[in-house]
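To: structure subgroup
Subject: Chain for Friday's discussion

All,

I'm putting the inputs and outputs inline so they're searchable in the archive.
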Amino acid sequence: MIHADLSDRQDSWREQLWTRRLTADTFEVARLPFFTHGICHRDVVTIDSNHLPTRVVRKSRHRTLRVALVVEHADREQIHELLRSKVVDVGLPHEWLQGTYLAVDLPPGTDESLFIKALEPLAEAGALHSEIDS
């Protein structure tokens, strides 16, 4: 496991990135990053002596769709279930963090348009924010 430095967003904040060691200082990202921009599932990164990524040496061409729910607790559970069923229906690998943050893996060639279309009305209503990172 390595850590991504996110202190530019919040003081001393880091995200744990689950990885698979390839060489002494080269790792393949094995799980979906929730907050780290520019690093996606299966990207290969090098690290420094503090186990922080220094650069991406090989992009996997995977992208990450990130969704953050921003509604009241009762509505959040309904929207969580709706999103869970949508992502399962389209068969995309995904992970949840605290029931509020969703990271969806978009492997090369994935057409995410149906899932994005389902997010649009929720985003327009102010229930969530989403972004795609590559």
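Points worth raising on Friday:
The radius of gyration is 16 Å.
The first helix runs from residue 73 to 90.

D.
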